[in-house]
Amino acid sequence: MKNRRILVVDDEEAIRDTCKRALEWAGYRVDVCQNVQEALELLDKEEDYELVLTDLNLPGLNGLELISEIKKKHPRCKTLLMTGTLPENNIDTRNCLRKPFGLTELVLKIKECFSSP
């Protein structure tokens, strides 16, 4: 687990920083960015991200669009969507983390993502 690398994407600095601290405390290597464009650039440059934790509502492209791009370009990378409300379209709620969430819930959900096929 110590080598697992996570990218957190959220336009709110407090959420990015809180997620980063909690996940680093749990033993993950974590990077953060604030929008989809930054995330895609990092993912293209750094091939070893195993999971992207992204907010749904981001400026410009949203979290679902980021997940779609990740599935095309980095199919082995897992994704987890943070949202206060679930989108209407057909999304797997197992890959969603409802806001507000506690830090223990965050860490458990990340572990669950890594343990699923």
Q: What's the number of extended β-strand segments?
A: 5
User: What name is given to the CATH topology?
Assistant: Rossmann fold
* Classification by helices and strands: alpha/beta
- Major sheet characteristics: 5 strands, parallel
- Uncertain spans: none
Which percent bin holds the helix content? 40-55%
Question: How are the SSEs placed, and which strands pair?
Answer:
Layout: E1 5-9, H1 13-25, E2 29-33, H2 36-45, E3 51-55, H3 63-73, E4 78-83, E5 96-98, H4 103-115
Parallel strand pairs: 1-2, 1-3, 3-4, 4-5
List keywords for this structure.
117 residues, alpha/beta, Rossmann fold, 4 helices, 40% helix, globular
What would your notes on this structure say?
With 117 residues, this protein is an alpha/beta fold. It has one domain (5-115): Rossmann fold (3-Layer(aba) Sandwich). The protein is built from four helices and five strands, in the order βαβαβαββα. It has helices at 13-25, 36-45, 63-73, 103-115; strands spanning 5-9, 29-33, 51-55, 78-83, 96-98. It has a five-stranded parallel β-sheet, sandwiched between helices. Helix 1 (13-25) crosses helix 4 (103-115) and helix 2 packs parallel to helix 3. The mean pLDDT is 91.
